[in-house]
């Protein structure tokens, strides 16, 4: 995705290990079910930088990346942001 700043990392029952990135302009993304995170809160990320590795943490039945995109705090279709 686009450059941004890590605003939260965590580990919970549903999402497992996750990272939330603020991209500015009201856009943020969450990457969940990670096996390993390679970033911490406050890190500034370049476009395409690795922030973690696919896993099966949290409530997951197989290895995958759960990607959520938010505009002004509301979930939107991530496909809109792929070119």
UniProtKB/TrEMBL annotation:
It comes from Candidatus Colimorpha enterica. Transmembrane segments: none annotated. InterPro entries: Cell_wall_metabolism_enzyme (IPR050570), Dup_hybrid_motif (IPR011055), M23ase_b-sheet_dom (IPR016047). Residues 2-78 form the M23ase beta-sheet core domain. One of its GO terms (molecular function) is metalloendopeptidase activity. The lineage of its organism: Bacteria, Pseudomonadati, Bacteroidota, Bacteroidia, Bacteroidales. PANTHER family: MUREIN HYDROLASE ACTIVATOR ENVC (PTHR21666:SF270), PEPTIDASE-RELATED (PTHR21666). SUPFAM superfamilies: Duplicated hybrid motif (SSF51261). This is Peptidase M23 family. It comes from the Bacteria.
